[in-house]
Write a structure and sequence with these properties.
By secondary structure, this protein is α+β, with helices and mostly antiparallel strands. The chain contains 4 helices and 10 strands; from the N terminus they run βαβββββαββββαα. Strands 1, 2, 3, 4, 5, 6, 7, 8, 9 and 10 form a 10-stranded antiparallel beta sheet that branches. The relative contact order is 0.23.
Amino acid sequence: MSPSIETRENREFASEIKFLITPLMADQIRSWARTRLGADPHGSGPTRDEYLITSLYFDTENFDVFHRRGSFGRSKYRIRRYGASEIVFLERKLRTRGLLAKRRSTVKIEDLAGLVPTELERGWPGYWFHRRLVGRRLRPVCQITYHRSARVVMTKLGLIRLTIDDQLRAVPVPQIAFDEATPGQPFLEGQTILELKFRYELPLVFKFLIEEFALSQQRLSKYRLAAAALGLAREPAEQTETTPQSEPAPCPTSS
């Protein structure tokens, strides 16, 4: 579970838990995390822990990924871009026995045209990704853009990550290309997503965080929320995916 822009193709299984919180609580947790965890090695901004993420998400004509039907409910395919980089990441997130594994490869943004034809090009770094798009009949559905704050720290069980995502916007995409012109439709307005990522067992620092802010884990999917907000899917996102937690009282203090 290395930093987000690391290019290693396969990653070990890890746990990921999510929380839907308010912007005020997000600010409090950012301050809390900045006193206890290090900045993301690839972050920018005054605190060196911020960046912009844009991802293209894929689904079938029947929205099997959205509905979590069969094996489609265990994997997601997306193309991720950081900021205005000309390098993008072809990614598969696979959930097995409650754990996540990620496979990713890097290609130039100009090479995304290679994913369009049905003929597969062996030896190309994106061959495995293209093969699965064709085999699973996946097509681009929407583009999601958001701002992320990320903090990391090395523990005896490996690297752990805390991320806070806000300013989420979505736009439908008819082809495998990033849409830089359309501002997109905001979704989850007034709400923020907190994610904790770790291996093996919940780290003590995260236990403190959950207890101090009285956090309650929720099942969240940015893709499902975006597809529903855009009216692309046949059913709305679950109610539990749209209710943020309120702030605890009193406000926690940094130490």
